[in-house]
Queue: 2 jobs
Job 1
Amino acid sequence: MAANPFSSRSHLKVGKRTFTYFALPALEKAGLGTLSRLPYSIRVLLEQALRNHDDYVVSTKDVENIAAWGPKTAGQVEIPFLPGRVVLQDFTGVPCVVDLAAMRAAMQRLGGDAAKINPLVPCDLVIDHSVQVDAFATSTAEQENLKLEFERNGERYEFLKWGQQSLTNFRVVPPGMGIVHQVNLEYLASGVLTKQDGKDTLAYPDTVVGTDSHTTMINGLGVLGWGVGGIEAEAVMLGQPTYMLLPEVVGMELSGTLPEGATATDLVLTVTQLLRKHGVVNKFVEFYGTGVASMSLADRATIANMAPEYGATMGFFPVDAETCRFLQKSGRDAEQVALVEAYYKAQGLFWTPDAPVPEFSSTLKLDLATVVPSLAGPKRPQDRVPLTAMQKEFRTGLSKDVKDRGFGLFGDQLMAKATIADDSKAVIAHGAVVIAAITSCTNTSNPSVMLGAGLLAKKAAARGLSRKPWVKTSLAPGSRVVTDYLQKAGLMQALEQVGFHVVGYGCTTCIGNSGPLPAAISQAIKDGNLVASAVLSGNRNFEGRVNPDVKANYLASPPLVVAYALAGTVDIDLDKEPLGFDDDGKPVFLREIWPTQQEIADAIASSMSPEAFRKQYGTVDQGPPPWRKITAKKSALFAFDGGSTYIQEPPFFTTMGRAVGTIAPILGARALAVLGDSVTTDHISPAGNIKKDSPAGRYLLEHGVQPADFNQYGARRGNDRVMTRGTFANIRLRNFLVQQEGGLTKHLPSNETMAIYDASMKYQQEGTPLCVLAGKEYGTGSSRDWAAKGTFLLGVKFVLAESYERIHRSNLVGMGVLPLEFLPGQTRDSLGLSGHEVFDVAIDDTVQPRQQLTVTAIHPETGKVTTIQTQCRIDTPVEVDYYRNGGILQTVLRKLLGPAKPVATKAAKAPVAKTTPAAKAKPVAKAKPEAKTTPAAKKPTAKPVAKKAVAKKPAPKKPVAKQAAKKAAPAKKGKVAAKAKGKPAPKPVAKKAVAKKPVAKKPAGKPAKKGKR
Ligand code: SF4
């Protein structure tokens, strides 16, 4: 801990307590500029740098860089971020804990102390992602679903109990208690964190990273935080900083108030559309203006939650009077609330409407009075549809081209209908709502929309309306506080009357755990080839996300979810057509039963209290009876069970040595998949159903697991065997190598079509490294560490895409997979790449962040050579180290192990020297300047290296580059490429490069050896 950087160490008296803090105003006195011009979010980053200043991890320059933030310098400077705590959900949290257990095992194998592996910052894991909606529309739904959840997840839950007992600084919120971000908002977040610093109690802003992209919700409470990959979160848990480029900050000024009839959900869909259009990817968004001052904290949290949908790193609401009011109303201790107010005021971080507006990189405005009731869909959250235009938009979408996010129907297909073969004998058509789900912390954390749904249900029930029989209805609160206030407001019964019984306390439909549709309904959809729809109060609606039977997914407020369950179709104009008819045969229109703002405000006032929060959270760690029954032993090492199909020791460290290796070229790679734009992490690593005939399904069957017990991919993230088989197995993934949907590819050069996993195994047996070619926004969607881990375990050495989603790019580096980017204006199509080529990447140990790297693509049949300059998306020097070490975890493990002892170094190097002469090849570094400065066409980069190396000393397994070289010799290839560009053949350069580079003796596709990447 810094002693007194910039003479900033100060004291703050709050009531009878005295705290130490690092005062930001001291930086102004030290001449670092006027801090009030900085966005509040940047000032929070500045505080953490000041506090952690040690001139090692955080330098004086880091502090100065943050203080010097300006619209023009943003995006250029890398800074360390040391968040105060970590939150995990179980889908992504289980593999984090599995990795900690595997690191403990590796630590012991390598001669270190296993017990050193613990979270070093407070870490909370909320088990919320595993509950699925099997039972619904019955008073026993919650208990039935909870029972099934424990049956399906017993092994994972036993493992997490081991973690709870054996790891320090690690808390678990058991299943059936709530959703991570809502629990964070209502309970875990404290506004100001404290810890002992010698005799002093240090106070500092609550900051957090989480293994879920919607961690951003907590920014509604003024807590700076966002989602990171599981591997980054593990590094933070282990005391490492996470690194980021000091971001641009977009200021969004809100004014006015929401009009009657509009909800917080309508507001956030509007904000999402505006910010998407503005362009906020990789940027902070900060809200200000009179509209913020009058906005409830719950509404702010709803807006902050959907930052991933508008593409920002996070959307920040600075701490103000409303923050303190919320902390008090949600049952936080009065002394803590006083500390929050005093601390932020002392730091100049307490926002008021008349405070000076900071400088922003850019700004935009929204008058809340212009917000109208809306939905968003049918395939993307930013495609907002005003309620009044819904029917027209849906009908237009039916015949629109698929590439324009339509459904591509024509002629008679548009008129299709099907009869449900159950007692109802109902006839459904396109637009039939088969799922209506009040789900997702985005909305369940907001009492105004939850009570609004209850009030609408009450009025509908009073008129005799209920859900249509084909609608699968569900209510999944994000905490038990919600049920408490719904009951106190007398609305729970009304929701049940129209079909919305509590199905569980967790993510459910929001994460794709909507459960199967009743068989007759599923069959009717198939029979009619119908575009069935879901209406959900979630935040994501990618194809295949919500349910495999549902193609059109609309995000909407909870009251609208209830309304569409009553209507039974989205093919309806709710302005003109009734939702149904009452007992007297009179039509019931939506406007008649829509709750007023006053009714909602009255319901909030009468049903919510701090005591209810304290009561519900007072016992949150105990969990439901099945959790309490689980027994788990405390032990330093977890006893991995080889027979488990849920928890296995991942092979990330099994071949790791203490010594760090060197970075070598990637030679002879084949494309495992060739993908288009907006490939999501769900396409790469699906969280949903495991198909029986998929590689993962076959693996489970071989291990005695029946299809009924397959569970979801998300639930099996503790087992690398399942997850690797599931990588790229999404039924909606389109791989251009095979021109069809599903996790298939073409093995080359055999041209056999097979599952991507099977092809990967074949390639790995052949010693062929792999790559993925992709379009824009590769890896968009929820953070998902298995999207990177699975990619790595499939043998993919690099991805070449037009652009990346922030977290996924960083996760690829964190797993030792090289992310490369086409230069602006270039694409796979513009370069004429089919994916049938053999690829070399000219990278070596001198690689620099964001350096241009040459990729050579040779078509083995035509001999055509394409030389591509690419942007290396290893963005920072620290990431270079991660890549050199083989990943973040290996880097951390080596740090905790300490310097390699002489004996260990010898042991690590000896086998490398035998099998990979490149490890000793210092001259590799010399070749780099040529790669950087020599035009690609003049230098056939790695290909001659392969030939020379192979000719001089054959590697144990041939690189594919050698096979390609037989068909297109280096000199000839150089000539071809040079001729294509009208330049002379580059033989001399190529020869020189060959002479200096023995690197290719080790094919890049081979498994990493000790001390070698
Ligand atoms: S409810 Fe949805 S947004 Fe919230 S944590 Fe669960 S999956 Fe993420």
Job 2
Amino acid sequence: MMRAINLKRLIVASLLVAAAWSAPAAQRSTASAGATLFEGARLIAGDGNPPIENSAFIVESGRFTRVGRKGDVPVPSGAARVDLTGKTVIPGLIDAHSHIGYMKNLTSGPQNYTRENILDHMYRFAYFGVAASQAMGTDFGEMPFQLRDELLAGKYPDAARFLSAGRGLSPIEEISSTNMRHSAFVVTTEEGARASVQELVPRKVKLIKTWVDDRGGAVKPMAPNLYRAIIDEAHKQNLRVAVHATGLADAKNLLRAGIDVFAHMISDVDDELVALFKEHPKTTVLLALGAPRRTVYAAWLNPPHPLVAETVSPEQIRRLQGRLASTTPDALAAARQAWDRLARGIVRLNAAGVRIGVGTDGGGQSGDQFIGWTMHTEMENMVAAGMTPAQVLVAATRTSAEVLGLDDLGLVAAGKSADFVVLDANPLDDITNSRRISRVYLRGAEVDRAKLKARWSGGGTTH
Ligand SMILES: [Zn+2]
């Protein structure tokens, strides 16, 4: 068997050599037998190691098969070649917390939640170099699970992978017909909470979403016995639990109850919280800094960054500009204080080695958190809060893939799906270089960004 393959390879290789005898290198590269060599880029693999300058990696059948230094990587005969000299490659980014299918130009709500709108959002993620995103507890009906399976199977090659937590679990006080918890499971008893978790098991969700927040005293938060039942039942079913909880006391009790993921940064950090995180080293915090920070900093909006102008309608951009411009001095001062406190907390958690991933709350109903774009502002905000670009890139790739159980994403490494972003500049020098996107590849195939951009040009709406 081996011999037959080698013989066949030898014949193919000799034919290619003969055909390419007098052809220039670029022409020869088109004689591909399925493998493609990408060479010359600075490679940031997502594992936290220093970048590989002048790298080479091979993609075959949608996967990385070899990764190393140019000249050290054996190249299959007949491999196509792509010269990435001067570029920087990072793994496909992962947004582990978003709300998919609700936002549509100036409106946001369940009325927009269609297959077409979810798909549009997944195209947006791909356009921005995001390979996968997790909708956090705001999906309903069977449609999202069907679409999820189609997207995971690669039916839409230019779209990011869509993960769903299905319906989240919420106290009744948090639910209204127009908010994103309109279809949540209402949690009133421990038995009911367990039954709701069990209902999600056959939908093959990986995460359960729940809310434990008093909304500044406006609602009664979920009682500890109820979220303990949710977490316990989820763990029995081999599922993880992500919580919206920002209060310090709630966060401590959730850690004691074995929570897996905080979907937002906790508003205060003290010694006891740090100690509890150290006792629960697998618990991950997704920071979701976009809403808290944009009141105090949104340089990307004035004027709008080209990627925003290309994907968001002028009226939606103007509305956000107006909202931010109308911030009162008191509100601005409060926002600055809140941001500074968040940043101090992030520095402490990061220094203590707490696992930090990236989740942006994109598409959320605090308004105009543009799908896909929020990934790039989130990474900038994390650096502004005190993390290094290298740490943020690991958080945005390997860690977030681990949080979502996406074993084949998050790294440029042999065996992983070939999802990567080619950048024109190095994000380790300046994290906003993540926006200088040259090309995006999903499963080894280049995303047709020009075609996607044309969908959104002239208004940002596609349908
Ligand atoms: Zn959210």
